[in-house]
Structures are given as C-alpha cells and as structure tokens.
Write a structure and sequence with these properties.
21 strands, four-stranded antiparallel beta sheet, alpha/beta, globular, 13 helices
Length: 550
C-alpha cells in the first residue's frame, strides 16, 4: 500500500485523521471555496505544526491531455501558427486524421507527441503488405525521431461503418502496418490502433453489463483485441458524454455529464457508485472486453468534447457547459484517478478539437467543438491549458496519491452508499451520428463548477491529512461534520474513494479501526482533499484560528 507520506508523522498518530496530534491548536480554515454539496458535510481544519513533507499533489503525474487537430475548414491559421499555439499550452499530444507532411515537419523538435491517422478509404490498399511498407516508409520513418510519432490510428469507427467490406480489411491492414514497423525496428516506438464508436456496444448500462454487438464480437472484435494485446497497444474509443446527455436529458443529469457533484449512478451488479458519465463509458468497454476474456488491453479515448454553439434544438449546448466539461476533463486526466474498474490507470485522451472547423457537415454543433477560434483566440478560457508560471512546491522526497480502488468502498455498520435509482438509458453516440455506450464516472472527482449545471447534487464528505509546504508550515485536515446523516456520509465516502487511496480503511487496512462510519469518512475526504484540491486552494488559506462551518 502506498502510505502517501504517513510514515513521516506516524509517531504522532494512531491513524491519520482519526486522532490529531496531541496538544495541537486546531482551527477551521477560512477563505476556501469548496463545492457546496461537499462542504455541507465536512470541516477543513488547519494547525500550525512543523512538517517536512508536502503531500498535496506530488504524485499527480502530468498525464498530459491530447487534442485532435482537424483540418475540415478553409479559415484555419497556418500550421506554424497552430504549432506555436499548441506549444504555448499544456497540450502534450496532438492527433491528426492523416499524415500531413507539413504538420509532421512543423512538430519536429517540439516535444509534442503526434498520432497520425489513416482514412477509411485507404484501408483497402494497406491489405497489401508492400503498400503497408511503403506507407510506413513515406509517412512515419522520415520524420522520426525529430517528430515524436507514437501512434498510427487506422480508420475511424470502422466496426460501425456503413461500408461492411472494411470490417474484414481492418485487421489485415493493421497487421501489415505492424509488420512494416517491425521491419524498420520501430514497433516499440510506434503503436497501431483503431478508433471505434461506442456504438459497437450492444449494451452499456450499467457499465458492468457492457457487451459488444454479438454479430461482430467473435468474428471481428475478438481478433482485433488479440492483435492489440500481442502488440501492447490500446483500443481507442470516441466517448462523448455530450451525446448521451443530448439523447436522454430527462434521465441523465447534466451535472453527471460535466463531472460536477451529483448523486451519481449505482451499478447494481458491482455496487460501484459512479459519479461521472465519462469513465463509466470506458468501464462499459472494459466490461465488454472481459466478456471476451480480454483483460490486458487498455482503453484510450480518441475523441471527446462538448460543443459551445448549437442549433436551438440541441439541448445542453453552451459556452459555459463546453468550458466546464473540458476544464473538468483535463483535471480528471492529469490527476489520473482512472476508472472504478481500472483505478489509477492513465487514460490516453484526446479532446475534439483544437479549432472550430467551419466546413464540417451536420448541425451547428459539429462546427463548434473547438477550444480555439481560427484566429487563435480561445473560445473560452480553460485554466488547465495555461502553462504554469511557477513550479509546485518541492515534495522533499515524499509522495502523495495512492492506488486505492475507485468507487468501490463498502461502508461499515450496514450503511448504504447511494439510495437512488440509476437512469434507465445512458447510451451515448459518437460524433458521426453513431450511438454508443452509457456511462457514469470514476469516483469522486473535484470539479470545476461554473454554476452552469443542472441536475442533482451529491453530498460528499471530508478530506485530507497532510502537510502543506515544507519546513514549519501549515497542516490541513478535513473531517466529517458532527451530526451529518449517515446515508450522506456513506455515499460521500464512495465519492471520495474514486480519487483518494482508501485502501487503509478497507478491512485489514492499517486504519480500518475504529470501524466506524464517521472515522472512515474523515479519512476518505482527508485524502481526497490532499490529492486533488491543495494546488487550487492553498493560495486562499488563512491562518485564522477561528472556527467556521461552511
């Protein structure tokens, strides 16, 4: 178990957050803007004590966000201007829909990872091994290593495409491309995958019931997954909570779709309480793969996003919702909670899209998924895309975070986590008008809340043990408020354990005792706070020793 720096203060604790340091002056911090539904049932405490371990986010690996760089427009900036824009942000990966030579050259020596694409209408030619070798020699080899090409995406949503002949051509083309990489000794550097629509799932709700379309599961999907397993590659899916919400706004909460606090969705088969739609869509794919006895292939997200402008009948479209979704998505990816079925596993994710593209067909929303206007101005501000001006505090060798399970906490004393009925339809569709999987999300993610969401708010609990800063600094805890309803605490623990490491309060864990709900809630939200809120709240903390209830 990752102790998250607890050894440094073990001599002063029976268990972190169950017992405070003897003789400490404890006070509740002021000036911290926490989500209302979270702050209702916990208190944040601070005390001035010596510490040598910064435990806020030293383990928050910068699992960089990717962005799709589409070209379906006649008013885009020059490639060099686009590269300059990307380099001014925290975007670490770019995905192309072709292998545009000008773009590949422009990203040379930028330290930006590049995924290249192969259009569906080129797949047939690549079933010829000679053509596949020529494609690698022309579109990959000449640009390495200066341009960091890491992945080749073969086709887009082929398994649900209208052209059924592509189904039998996809895997041979991928195998030939891989063989060509092997011939050039590039197979470890460049991986072959294929983006698919969630419409390849015949069932997606609850996530544990995820299953592939039986008409293609054994004949096409299982052999494809076998190839991805052998080549240590991942299955990429186009996952859009926006389309799920748009199709069924009465049963799918907007807050649940935007990573905002909500009452969540329970999977009755696993008991997992999901708190956002994005990662349940991913878990539905993991469940479908498991039904084919495939458990060693990772799932990545080749496209996801939210439009900022749409037609009057396109529900949920607004600048505010687009900003909220992408802001919270980036937080989710870079803080790396994983999903309940794959906790702490990085999710290779690409936002759609870099620019609004004015020639895309379809409703107005299709032309307004971009983070930026063609003139390079931001459609809306996404804080996490701004490069930081200062470095985070040194962790002095200590680590934070953890590897606890996401969303699967079982509260003591028979308390139930949840107490609501899940929606009866969570299916989503990909951008190309193909329906897809339903979802919910991995555990309790600390959302960026711009006040734009509707839908139920969930209650969440208390958070974090740990030191803020090194040396003689301030130590912050969050603990459950006395008198909070036990059912709220139970659901809140599950929410927090989707992000925090809760292994210590599981049966047999070092902090399982006292086996009491309030103690477990204090530990869970103590860890939650430290893992994901420190960097955003530390600048607002005061040293007041007055007690406040939020």
């Amino acid at each position: 178990m990752n102790r998250r720096g607890e050894d440094r203060v073990q001599e002063n604790y029976i268990c972190p957050c169950h017992t405070f340091l003897a003789g400490e002056m404890v006070s509740i911090i002021t000036g911290v803007q926490l989500p209302r539904v979270i702050s209702r049932i916990f208190l944040c405490l601070l005390s001035s004590v010596a510490s040598h371990a910064w435990m806020g986010s030293s383990n928050l690996r910068p699992n960089s966000i990717g962005v799709n760089y589409g070209q379906v427009a006649n008013n885009l900036p020059s490639v060099q201007q686009a590269v300059t824009l990307v380099r001014s942000t925290t975007i670490g990966k770019i995905k192309l829909y072709d292998a545009n030579a000008t773009i590949l050259r422009a990203f040379a020596n930028t330290n930006i990872q590049v995924t290249v694409g192969i259009a569906n209408d080129h797949i047939s030619s690549l079933t010829n091994p000679t053509s596949a070798r020529s494609w690698i020699n022309d579109n990959v080899s000449p640009y390495l290593p200066a341009t960091q090409i890491t992945t080749i995406c073969v086709g887009n949503e082929v398994l649900t495409a209208a052209d059924q002949s592509l189904l039998s051509q996809l895997l041979p083309a991928m195998e030939n491309l891989h063989s060509a990489l092997v011939s050039s000794n590039l197979q470890s550097q460049v991986k072959i995958t294929t983006p698919q629509s969630l419409a390849l799932l015949s069932n997606s709700f609850p996530p544990s019931a995820g299953a592939f379309n039986p008409t293609i599961a054994q004949s096409f999907i299982k052999p494809l997954l076998g190839f991805l397993s052998r080549t240590n590659s991942s299955l990429m899916v186009n996952a859009y909570p926006y389309f799920a919400y748009r199709r069924d706004p009465h049963n799918i909460s907007l807050a649940y779709s935007l990573f905002l606090p909500n009452t969540g969705v329970n999977d009755p088969n696993t008991g997992i309480l999901y708190s956002n739609l994005f990662s349940a869509q991913i878990d539905a794919v993991y469940s479908a793969m498991a039904k084919l006895n495939v458990t060693d292939v990772e799932v990545g997200v080749s496209e996801t996003g939210w439009p900022s402008v749409g037609d009057p009948d396109e529900v949920g479209v607004s600048v505010q919702n687009a900003m909220t979704y992408n802001q919270n998505l980036i937080y989710y990816i870079v803080t790396n909670p994983g999903t309940p079925l794959r906790p702490r596993r990085p999710i290779n994710t690409f936002i759609f899209a870099l620019f609004n593209e004015n020639l895309k067909p379809g409703p107005t929303s299709e032309r307004n998924f971009g983070l930026y206007q063609p003139d390079g101005s931001a459609v809306y501000e996404v804080q996490e895309l701004a490069k930081p001006s200062t470095s985070p505090p040194s962790n002095n060798g200590s680590s934070s975070g953890g590897s606890g399970s996401a969303g699967g906490y079982s509260p003591p004393n028979g308390s139930s986590a949840g107490g609501y009925a899940p929606p009866n339809n969570g299916s989503s569709s990909g951008r190309n008008n193909s329906s897809g999987g339903s979802g919910s999300g991995a555990g309790g993610y600390p959302p960026y809340n711009n006040g734009s969401s509707s839908g139920s708010n969930s209650s969440s609990g208390s958070s974090g043990m740990g030191a803020v800063g090194g040396g003689n600094q301030t130590r912050i805890w969050c603990v459950a408020k006395p008198g909070t309803d036990r059912s709220l605490l139970a659901g809140a623990i599950t929410y927090a354990c989707g992000v925090a490491d809760c292994s210590a309060i599981q049966s047999g864990g070092s902090c399982f005792y006292p086996n009491e709900l309030v103690s477990h809630a204090s530990y869970a939200f103590n860890s939650y706070y430290q893992r994901l809120w420190w960097m955003h709240l530390s600048s607002k903390l005061t040293h007041s020793e007055k007690q406040h209830q939020f």
